[in-house]
Amino acid sequence: MNRFYIVIFALLATACQETDSEQNKSDQKMEKPQYAQDSHSFSKPNEVAATHLSLDVEVDFDNSVISGTATHRLERNGGNSVFFDIRGLTIHGVTDQDGDTLNFSITRGNKRGDGLGIALNESTAEVNINYVTSSDAAALLWLNPEQTLGKTGPFLFTQGQAILTRSWVPIQDTPALRITYDANVKVPSNLMAVMSATNPTSKNQSGIYSFRMDQPIPPYLMALAVGDLKFEEVGKRTGVYAEPAMLEKAVYEFADVEKMLIAAEDLYGPYKWDRYDILVLPPSFPFGGMENPRLTFATPTIIAGDRSLTSLIAHELAHSWSGNLVTNATWDDFWLNEGFTVYFEKRIMEALYGKDYAEMLNQLGLQDLKHTIDDLGETSPDTHLKLDLEGRDPDAGMTDIAYEKGFLFLRMLEEKVGRERFDKFLRNYFSENAFKTMTTERFIAYLGENLLSELDEKPDVHEWIFQPGIPDNFPKPNSSLFAKVDEAREAWLSGEKAASKLETKDWSTHEWLYFIRGLEGGLSISKMSELDAAFGFTETGNSEIAAAWYEHAIQSNYRKAFPAMEEFLVSVGRRKFLEPLYQKLSETDEHLKWAKEVYEKARPNYHSVSTQTIDEILKWS
After folding, report:
1. 403 is catalytic
2. Rounded to a whole number, what is the distance in angstroms from the first to the last CA of the chain?
3. For residue 2, is pLDDT > 90?
4. Is the pTM value of this prediction over 0.85?
5. Which of the following is catalytic: 181, 241, 276, 403?
6. Of 243, 253, 291, 316, which is the active-site residue?
7. 434 C-beta neighbours (distance < 10 Å), count
8. What is the mean pLDDT of the chain?
9. In this structure, is residue 553 part of a structural domain?
């Protein structure tokens, strides 16, 4: 064969290889995603997935309902029906993209929700679901003007995690699926609407607001709030929404958020969500914060006036990588969201405020973890990182196990391989798995291949993830600042120093918390009075310190604190504070009677996430 033909054949072979290669890439792109099986959802996304939502709704404060149409774009993979999760929704009708009516049926489930099945035509590419929520939808909290700070108008906010989004939108309510969405929301003209999406920065005359979320998110992160809101920037990519009466305080408190964002990017790569803004909600919000993309929902209980509680914002910001970017595939894998986020939060705080500051957070977190294990039982399967929540509300898995045991596991890995190597691993993990879901089993495989494969002595990953309690090789925090607090507390308890003589001038909230937590249970009234006179714990405006102090007031029956505690319980809806206080109050008949009287006043101010827990503690009906 002459040289000319050899060249021609070589070129053809190369072209064929390149064509085959391009075809393989195309096939990979066209390959349908495989969604994890989720026992908490009726959806079957492996048959038909609803991948984009267009929402057109009206918020009706007079009747406490949201009504309108949810249009879902479908990705079909052989299924002839599509299934959605609903809870308390009234479905008025379903049509396709051509306006043709589609048959639907509802499968009754349990108090966590029902299934909406819609029969599809061969050409169905979209379904339009016309619906209205119930007035007591579990995700929604409707506040009258008197329940807000400014008292100028009503307020509404949603809380979708874990499986409550289905109570205000018919949706495939599983973290295994990611969706994009757009929305038109009509509200009263004196109020502003904001979502976990692109947002306005001022009110408009029409009361109609449009939103887009182009990055795919799990449905539990779709969020809406409506109220008398104002906005102010605190950095190039960061800002704060709040009621006008709260805005100045919030802007001061969150002045370092842009620095946090820069520190986070320096650690683990670019921020993928364009903006990071914070919405300060009324006190009824049941959590410290919720990491809704682009717009963290935050409790006002972190507004302490000294920026001492902003580690919570670092936590919600860190979720922009762990949870929002790489998401637990099911609620059994919840630790993959929270353990990573606590680790990341602590690294942000260390970068900004130093190792001593971070070690205080680590030590308080370990206290919380040990307390949770004592409550659950050392051998309880609920102290595993990988959970089995089938048949249970996934809210049951949202304990300090996922957060603090998950953190300790990652901290142990960091110490095992060295910080530099561990940081490189995490940076790659977030980059390679961006906008994807993750199961515990796939993470273990990824960990083995990308971090542990070259180690001669490998840590017992199975013990950490699938066994109860805290393994013996957990990293021990050691705070030099807390050592000084121990000395001061012991000097007071022993009578060596009066409370007023203790050197506490430069103490942060964390040192005060550690001081109070270390007090003996059931102090005498005289001892409680001495502390109160010296430090004003009963009337403190710091919610963390107040909640810790009120636990001691209950144990000591320090009645002077009870009026302030009642005001606290009525006005603050954060479950982290409510649960331990009501639990301690329920331990004696006298306190239980008082707690029920307070709860009757307070309950209308609480979100369903909190009432579900407190109802059980007080046996409320």
Report:
1. yes
2. 92
3. no
4. yes
5. 403
6. 316
7. 15
8. 93
9. yes
